[in-house]
Specification:
By secondary structure, this protein is of the alpha/beta class. Helix content is 29%, strand content 22%. The protein is built from 14 helices and 17 strands. The longest helix is centred in the middle third of the chain and has 19 residues. The radius of gyration is 24 Å and the shape is globular. The two termini are 42 Å apart.
């Protein structure tokens, strides 16, 4: 085995830079960007705005309210733009509730899989609505909600999810109550419901089917409350999504049950808005051409590893093919295999796409790898560096 491995290794000598015509950065032509040290996440407000305008249209056309799911995206430096197109935030913890209240404003919904005795009072102090995950949590803490409306998560037992890991309807799911008979005795104390059983769903017909099953199961409960949140996971900002049909269905649902509908978009709000900009630090060859960049999938785009997906690279076309790898010690720290229009060399910059949702919120200090800075391209085209991370940030993340 050892001898096979050694045989497979090829010795590679870095190609010298020849001539001066080749740009120093493969993909960066903007001088403002090339002066920023990598790695950094670049949020492009123009691209974000495209999603926000669709969300706003859905709000106006359907009457639904839209809350940003902070679990997906919580980079508050762009909330100044987002709050003009959305009604507020929803959360999964006390800290998200606090962040939403402080930096976004509007309506602050507080949901958690389980609230604890030590946090419940503070949660209520920052929230406009509190949503419990179970009858047991509701019975324990509803009395603490004071004047704010109380909700309960329901689980229709059907979902749209390609991954067992992210499937709220997986066997033995702990996410919400599935038996209407357990909920009925509490109805006079419940103001609303939340259902989140759509995941990365680009298919309107599938959305419609899951919603119909949800109504079949829980419709008689919806008639008793004033609001229903349909959660996130609906990719209605995607290219070609039938927005008119979507809005009509939301409106029909609201009218049929006499409720205010909420949507909780996370990914749909930020999709394709952000890139992770990196620099090539080294090249190796081991039957494939390998590039090592100054970032790490494990640390900076963790969801790719969890869901075993490839990153998206731009450009990804041309005769030069490389495996782009992270710099952590994890053997499988690989962004993916991509094609480039020119030979990639040490010092070149690469732009990894779609790095907002479930990415920036999950970044971590694994291997002590330099945390990517955060930069924002404003609507007028200027780029603003809003956060740089230092050794002291790494140090203070532990003690
Ligand atoms: C309760 C709830 N609401 C909203 C969302 C946001 O979903 P997405 O980012 O897929 O739109 C999630 C994601 O897990 C969720 O659990």
């Amino acid at each position: 085995m050892l001898s096979f491995r050694l045989a497979a290794l090829q010795i590679w000598t870095p190609a010298p830079y020849i001539g001066t015509t080749r740009p120093a950065h493969l993909n960066v032509t903007d001088p403002e960007l090339s002066s920023l040290a990598t790695p950094y996440y670049l949020i492009d407000k123009e691209k974000l705005l495209r999603n926000l305008e669709i969300i706003d249209r859905v709000r106006r056309q359907s009457g639904a309210k839209a809350l940003l799911a902070l679990k997906c995206f919580a980079t508050w430096s762009v909330f100044d733009l987002m709050r003009d197109y959305m009604d507020g935030t929803t959360s999964s913890s006390l800290f998200e509730v606090r962040l939403g209240r402080r930096h976004f404003g509007g309506e602050t919904h507080a949901y958690s899989v389980a609230w604890s005795d030590t946090e419940i009072d503070e949660v209520v102090g920052h929230a406009d609505k509190i949503i419990f995950n179970s009858v047991s949590q509701f019975e324990r803490f509803a009395g603490k909600a004071g004047a704010i409306p109380r909700g309960l998560r329901l689980n229709p037992g059907v979902s749209v999810s390609g991954f067992d890991l992210a499937d709220p309807a997986r066997p033995f799911s702990r996410l919400g109550e599935w038996d209407p008979a357990r909920v009925e005795p509490l109805l006079d104390r419940i103001d609303g419901f939340m259902v989140h059983n759509q995941c990365e769903n680009r298919d309107f017909d599938l959305f419609d089917k899951v919603l119909a099953e949800t109504e079949r199961r829980f419709g008689h409960l919806f008639a008793e409350v004033s609001w229903v949140s349909l959660g996130g996971g609906i990719h209605f900002t995607g290219e070609g999504y039938p927005l008119d049909a979507f809005c009509a269905r939301l409106k029909q649902f609201a009218e049929r049950h006499g409720v205010q509908v909420y949507l909780e978009p996370g990914e749909a709000a930020v999709t394709n808005s952000t890139s992770l900009e990196v620099t090539v630090l080294d090249r190796l060859s081991n039957r494939k051409e390998l590039l090592i960049v100054d970032s790490s999938v494990e640390a900076h785009m963790l969801d790719l590893l969890i869901y075993r997906e490839s990153a998206k690279m731009q450009p990804d076309e041309g005769p030069w093919r490389y495996l782009v790898c992270g710099k952590s010690c994890l053997a499988g720290d690989i962004f993916g295999e991509f094609s480039f229009p020119a030979e990639v060399r040490i010092g070149d910059r690469l732009s990894i796409q779609d790095a907002a949702g479930y990415t920036m919120v999950k970044k971590n200090w694994f291997n002590g790898v330099q945390m990517p800075s955060i930069a924002i391209r404003e609507l007028d085209g200027t780029v603003r560096l809003v956060r740089r991370f230092t050794f002291e940030d790494y140090e203070s993340s532990l003690s």
